[in-house]
Amino acid sequence: MVNKLILLGRVGADPEQTQLTSGIVVNFSLATSEKWKKDGEQREETQWHDIKAFGSLADVISKYVKKGDMLYIEGKVKYTTWEKDGIKRYGTDIICHNMQMLGGKKNDTESEFTG
Predict the structure, then answer these.
(1) Cβ-based burial of 69 (10 A; exposed 0-12, middle 13-18, buried ≥19)
(2) 3-state class of 2 per DSSP?
(3) pTM of the predicted model, to two decimals?
(4) 5-32+42-103 has which CATH code?
(5) pLDDT digits (tens, 9 = 90+) for 27-41
């Protein structure tokens, strides 16, 4: 069985780092867009993804990734459920295993990191 996801998009906000007893985790949002034409009119739809990274990859992301940066992400989908105020809630996270920096708005450098 395979659970693999590849995303190419822009970081929505500076990553937030949290210290856990097992190490560090970093969370950030990534926007991906799809463009197409319908009836001669250009259309675009943006999807927002919640990304999590752990360990040394989380450390690299917290130091070098900023809002607006273009990233290539490889990871897996993880579905979560929890209960709050008696209501069952659902979430979807992308657990990042590989990340390649494709440059920010002003930076065209490329770097690859694996965690």
Answers:
(1) buried
(2) coil
(3) 0.80
(4) 2.40.50.140
(5) 999 999 998 888 888
